[in-house]
Amino acid sequence: MREAPTALVSLDALGASGVTVVNETPHGALAVGLSGGEPFAVSNRCRHLGGPLGKGHVADDGCLECPWHSARYDIVTGKMKRGPQGAFKPVAGVVKSTLGKRDLKTYPVEVRDGQIWLKG
Question: Does residue 18 surpass a pLDDT of 80?
């Protein structure tokens, strides 16, 4: 039996970051937002150190960027596109090649009536 669609967040609530955390879903906490006008929903925890992705932002390249160390994820595939930066920059490639093998889980969503909905 399919689950009924679930309203996740109003587009107006996304703000400049383009993403937010939605805690109450059938899948637990999700990072939900818009990238290039397309809605997305992915698991909320960065594969590096568990940073809250829904508190990050959608970068210019359309990827979801972690607020802790700036690792970036493709919101369609869930794959890490760039490893952590800053103090971690020398090991970003190693992190991407090891931890980056664990993709974010992605969820089917759609925009309807000014909100992002999780499809049933």
Answer: yes
